[in-house]
Specification:
- InterPro entries: DsrM, Heme-iron_electron_transfer, NarG-like_domain, NarG-like_sf.
- It is a multi-pass membrane protein.
- It is a single chain.
- By secondary structure, this protein is mainly α.
- The chain folds into two domains: about 300 residues, Up-down Bundle (Fumarate Reductase Cytochrome B subunit); about 30 residues, no CATH class.
- The chain is built from 15 helices and two strands.
- It has a two-stranded antiparallel sheet.
- It is elongated, with a radius of gyration of 28 Å.
Length: about 350
C-alpha cells in the first residue's frame, strides 16, 4: 500500500504537468517559474540543513570503527577503518564516498544446519545492495554532469568527452547512453529489493518508495523524450539557456514530455533538502565517519560542562557519604575507623 501510494503521487505529478503544459498552455510556468522556484528552494534548504548540522557541537570523538585501533607498536593498526590521524580519516572518507566501503562489507543473517542438523545462525557476505547502490549513484552522477552541456555554450571539453564515452556503444539512433541504463537498472533493483525482501519491506515507509519512483519517473521521461518523442535538443537548450539568462520565452514545438520531465526534476529539487536524500551532504558531516579515533592520545573536553561545577573525585565522594555507604553495606576503600 505504501508503494502504491508513492506511485500514485508520482503519476499525479505526471498528469499535472501533462495537463498544465499541454491542454492549459502554461508552458512558461512549467518551463521557468516552477524550475526557478524549485532551484531556489533547493539551494536555501540545502544550505540551511548543512549549516544546522555544522553548528551542532560534537564534544567527543565517536567514530564507528571496523578494525584495530592504534595501540602498541607491535599491534598492526587498521588505518583506513580505524583512523587516528587526519590523512587516514581523509582516505577513509574518500573510500566511503567514492566506493561505499562500509556497504561493501554488508552481511546478512542466515540459518544453517551442521552435520547433526542442528540450527546455526551464521553471517554471510551480501554484496548485492552495494552493487545496486554503485550502479544507481554513478549512473545518476554521470547523467547530471552530462546534462550540464545544456547550460553552457560552448560545451566544455570534459563534458563533451564524458558524453562521447557515455555513448560509445553506438547502438540505435539516437545513441543509447550507458549512464541511462545504469540509472534505470540501479533504481529498479533498489525498488525490487524493497518489494521482495520481506525484512526491508516491513520497515519501508512512503518516504522510502517516493524518491525511488520519482527518480525512475525522471529517468523514464528522459528516455521517452530522447528515443520516442525525439524532441528537438536545440529547442530544449534554448529553454534552459533562457532560464539561466532570465530570457523567458518558450520556443514553439517543444513536446509536452519535456515539461513533464522538467516538472519531475523540479519536484525532486524541492523534496531533496527535506528528505533522506540529504545524506549526499550529510555524509561529510557525520561524526561517526569524519572524526579520528584518537581518544587514547587526545583529551576531549565537553563544551557543555559548567565551569562553575568543580570536579568531584571518588575519594571526595566517599569522604562525603562514608557513613551512609557503610551502613548500607557498600564496599569502601576506607572504613570509618580507618578514615578516622
Amino acid at each position: 500500500m505504501k508503494a502504491i501510494f508513492s506511485l500514485l503521487m508520482v503519476l499525479a505529478l505526471v498528469v499535472i504537468a501533462t495537463v498544465g503544459a499541454g491542454a492549459a498552455q502554461m508552458q512558461t510556468i512549467f518551463a521557468y517559474c516552477i524550475p526557478g522556484t524549485a532551484f531556489i528552494i533547493f539551494l536555501v534548504g540545502f544550505a540551511c540543513k548543512i549549516i544546522s548540522w555544522a553548528r551542532r557541537p560534537v564534544p567527543f570523538s565517536i567514530p564507528t570503527t571496523g578494525g584495530q585501533q592504534q595501540s602498541l607498536d607491535w599491534i598492526k593498526q587498521n588505518k583506513w577503518d580505524n583512523p587516528s590521524t587526519g590523512p587516514q580519516t581523509f582516505v577513509r572518507m574518500a573510500l566511503e564516498v567514492l566506493t561505499f566501503r562500509s556497504l561493501f562489507r554488508n552481511t546478512k543473517t542466515v540459518l544453517k544446519h551442521d552435520d547433526g542438523q542442528n540450527p546455526i545462525v551464521a553471517y554471510v557476505s551480501a554484496k548485492w545492495l552495494w552493487l545496486f547502490a554503485i550502479l544507481f549513484h554513478y549512473g545518476f552522477l554521470i547523467v547530471v554532469i552530462r546534462h550540464m552541456r545544456l547550460f553552457m555554450q560552448p560545451v566544455p571539453t570534459p563534458i563533451a568527452t564524458l558524453d562521447y564515452f557515455d555513448s560509445i556503444l553506438q547502438i540505435l539512433t539516437p545513441t543509447i547512453y550507458i549512464s541511462d541504463l545504469l540509472l534505470i537498472g540501479g533504481v529498479s533493483l533498489l525498488l525490487l529489493r524493497r518489494f521482495f525482501d520481506a525484512k526491508v519491506r516491513f520497515i519501508s515507509l512512503v518516504n522510502d518508495y517516493f524518491p525511488l519512483f520519482l527518480i525512475l519517473g525522471i529517468a523514464l521521461s528522459g528516455v521517452y523524450m530522447r528515443y520516442i518523442a525525439k524532441v528537438d535538443i536545440m529547442s530544449i537548450k534554448d529553454v534552459v539557456m533562457g532560464l539561466v539568462a532570465f530570457n523567458y520565452k518558450v520556443p514553439a514545438g517543444v513536446d509536452v514530455s519535456f515539461f513533464v520531465h522538467l516538472f519531475l526534476v523540479s519536484t525532486l529539487l524541492v523534496y531533496f533538502p527535506f528528505s533522506k536524500l540529504m545524506h549526499m551532504g550529510g555524509v561529510f558531516l557525520s561524526p561517526t565517519r569524519n572524526m579520528t579515533n584518537n581518544t587514547r592520545m587526545v583529551h576531549y573536553e565537553n563544551v557543555w560542562n559548567d565551569p562553575n561545577i568543580k570536579p568531584h573525585s571518588y575519594e571526595a565522594y566517599e569522604n562525603e557519604f562514608r557513613e551512609p555507604m557503610h551502613e548500607a553495606g557498600l564496599p569502601l576503600e576506607k572504613t570509618p575507623e580507618e578514615a578516622a
